[in-house]
């Protein structure tokens, strides 16, 4: 197969490496918006800026220049959008205008900040429905740190789409002995799980950075998953999805794994860094920082309570310090666990 990946950050590059690995054996075009970055990746056969120490297999070809032209030259079987959420709308607009007929999948995990003239921020599949309704598309998500995938360490992903053709194309493109790709028709659940776990991972970083203890972290993850599930179900997802790879799986990984950028934001805030300083020090996107407010707005609009996510929003806005957030959460009235 020929796979075209838009965006050459850590994750786009790792997925290019995975698909071109001899175990998968596909031909990949990795498109970078910055020509100088594309040249550097090609010259070194390594993305030193975003994924150092991993060599690109021979099957990866690096491209740049106008995206429309690169896409039409490539004639890809699958197109993958590996940009952050903030660039999804503009990228899907280009793909929609180019009348791409191949299946399209995005890798980003977030909720959009409200676009101009829009009351609420959208999930990725809602953005696609707005700007590129003709695309056959879906999400590729699940617990997966880029570095481990690029090193062919065992990983499971989930391909989510309402179109069986898209789910099957993603499995054909990426399934290998190192990378199992499950299919799930519940795109709402998969997207909510992938986006909201980033917000919970910021909270988990804070929890660990403040040395609140293992009990506290287990409580945070469990009640965090309850919040994620409540919001997802209210948005139309199936509750079972949140016990899967994009729910519990990605929450566990991101909230406890030190490769997570979202968790790192929480750890750095606990050290007393400002949000700007924490974000600057990452050198990569931490989607939870940008999604948290939209997540809470969508929850409020549906009458869904999300006390942990709400505390994260207040913390990120500088309206609450971590200790006050803890008091706010622990001071809530007793509740029925399953309510
Ligand atoms: N890094 C990881 O382990 C994983 C990341 N993700 C998700 O994938 C998305 C991308 O993450 P990373 O690659 O890690 O981010 P990153 O911060 O490493 O790289 C972002 C890349 O996107 C590029 N970019 C930004 N705007 C663009 C545009 N308009 N067109 C083309 N390229 C553009 C940047 O130049 C940069 O190369 C995020 O939503 C993240 O949550 C999902 C699973 C794993
Ligand atoms: O989504 C991820 C792992 O599945 C990556 O998480 P971070 O963006 O927090 O590094």
Automatic annotation (TrEMBL):
Glycerol-3-phosphate dehydrogenase NAD-dependent N-terminal domain location: 3-165
Any one GO molecular-function label of the UniProt entry: glycerol-3-phosphate dehydrogenase [NAD(P)+] activity
Record: residues binding NADPH: 11, 33, 50, 109, 146, 261, 285, 287
Chief localization: cytoplasm
Superkingdom, natural source: Bacteria
Active-site residue list: 197 (proton acceptor)
Residues engaged in binding sn-glycerol 3-phosphate: 109, 142, 144, 197, 250, 260-262
Family matches, as Pfam families: NAD_Gly3P_dh_C, NAD_Gly3P_dh_N
Places the protein is found: Cytoplasm
Keyword Nucleotide-binding: yes
Entry-linked InterPro entries: 6-PGluconate_DH-like_C_sf, 6PGD_dom2, G3P_DH_NAD-dep, G3P_DH_NAD-dep_C, G3P_DH_NAD-dep_N, NAD(P)-bd_dom_sf
Residue ranges annotated for the Glycerol-3-phosphate dehydrogenase NAD-dependent C-terminal domain, each copy included: 186-326
Enzyme class: oxidoreductase
Pathway per the UniProt entry: Membrane lipid metabolism; glycerophospholipid metabolism
UniProt keyword terms in alphabetical order: Cytoplasm, Lipid biosynthesis, Lipid metabolism, NAD, NADP, Nucleotide-binding, Oxidoreductase, Phospholipid biosynthesis, Phospholipid metabolism
EC identifiers of the protein: 1.1.1.94
Catalyzed reactions per annotation: sn-glycerol 3-phosphate + NAD(+) = dihydroxyacetone phosphate + NADH + H(+); sn-glycerol 3-phosphate + NADP(+) = dihydroxyacetone phosphate + NADPH + H(+)
Stated family: Belongs to the NAD-dependent glycerol-3-phosphate dehydrogenase family.
HAMAP family hit by this protein: NAD_Glyc3P_dehydrog
Reported function: Catalyzes the reduction of the glycolytic intermediate dihydroxyacetone phosphate (DHAP) to sn-glycerol 3-phosphate (G3P), the key precursor for phospholipid synthesis.
Name the record gives this protein: Glycerol-3-phosphate dehydrogenase [NAD(P)+]
Gene that encodes the chain: gpsA
């Amino acid at each position: 197969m020929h796979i075209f990946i838009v965006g050459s950050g850590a994750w786009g590059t790792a997925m290019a490496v995975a698909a071109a690995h001899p175990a998968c054996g596909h031909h990949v075009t990795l498109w970078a918006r910055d020509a100088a970055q594309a040249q550097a990746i090609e010259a070194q056969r390594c993305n030193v800026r975003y994924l150092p120490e991993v060599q690109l297999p021979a099957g990866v070809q690096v491209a740049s220049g106008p995206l429309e032209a690169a896409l039409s030259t490539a004639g890809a079987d699958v197109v993958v959008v590996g940009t952050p959420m903030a660039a999804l709308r503009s990228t899907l607009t280009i793909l929609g205008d180019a009348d791409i007929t191949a299946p399209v999948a995005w890798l980003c995990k977030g909720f959009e900040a409200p676009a101009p003239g829009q009351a609420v921020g959208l999930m990725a599949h809602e953005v696609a429905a707005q700007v590129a309704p003709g695309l056959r598309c879906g999400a590729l998500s699940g617990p997966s740190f880029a570095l481990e995938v690029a090193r062919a360490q065992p990983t499971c992903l989930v391909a989510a789409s309402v179109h069986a053709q898209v789910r099957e194309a993603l499995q054909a493109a990426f399934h290998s002995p190192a990378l199992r790709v499950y299919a799930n028709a519940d795109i709402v659940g998969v997207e909510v799980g992938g986006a909201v776990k980033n917000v919970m991972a910021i909270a988990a970083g804070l929890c660990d950075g403040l040395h609140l203890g293992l009990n506290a972290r287990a409580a945070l993850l469990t009640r965090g998953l309850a919040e994620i599930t409540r919001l997802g179900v209210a948005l139309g997802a199936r509750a079972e999805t949140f016990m899967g790879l994009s729910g519990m799986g990605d929450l566990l990984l991101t909230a406890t794994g030190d490769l997570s950028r979202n968790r790192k934001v929480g750890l750095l805030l606990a050290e007393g860094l400002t949000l700007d300083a924490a974000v600057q020090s990452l050198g990569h996107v931490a989607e939870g920082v940008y999604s948290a407010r939209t997540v809470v707005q969508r929850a409020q609009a549906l009458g869904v309570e999300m006390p942990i996510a709400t505390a994260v929003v207040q913390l990120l806005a500088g309206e609450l310090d971590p200790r006050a957030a803890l008091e706010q959460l622990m001071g809530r009235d007793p509740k029925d666990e399953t309510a």
